[in-house]
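Memo to structure team: turn this sequence into structure tokens by end of day. - J.P.
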Amino acid sequence: MDPYSRHVIICTGGFCSPERRGRGLYSLLASLLQREGLLFGADRVKRGETPCLGVCAGGPIVVVYPDGIWYAHVTPELLERIVVEHLKGGRVVEDAVFHRLNAEG
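Reply from structure team:
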């Protein structure tokens, strides 16, 4: 199996986002990745969902690995920026980052 360039995990549970808006983002992510040509090839991106990332506030939460970038309060508009600017363009959406797992991210 060919490697993925990045893995995006979206919290779809109800603790950080009681309205469970992460579920809609998870569905939207598939179409955005397809639109931007990120489903196949060397730059392909894997998407995943989880019921909890342990933050319990500020959701929906979206995490990009291996970059270690955590985004909070993600809306459909912000998710589109994350896909276009971060995943495709390689530039972290700095104004939406609330946590970095490493100093290099």
